[in-house]
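JOB MANIFEST
job_type = single_chain_structure
chain_count = 1
residues = 86
[input]
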Amino acid sequence: MCPEKPTVVPISAPGLGLPNPIQYYPYQSPLLPASESEKEAYERGVKAGKREAENQKNPYPDNSEQAKAYEHGYLDGQKIRFTDIP
């Protein structure tokens, strides 16, 4: 069986007004400052990580910014806990 030939000429991403996926952009997108609730979630995660609260479930909704901040804080809290061990 022979493959079908496309009937439409492909249009490149820049031709559609989209950024070129192959082109390197030397600048990074600006980081947005964390909200107060994300800072609180991070601190809560640090405290949980320091006190070995492995059985404690992430109290924030899945895939939320607060849940991500909590996880980062938890991992940082574990690092602090393990570096304090003589």
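[summary]
Residues 65-83 form the longest helix (19 residues).
Residues 19 and 27 are 14 Å apart (CA to CA).
exit_status = 0
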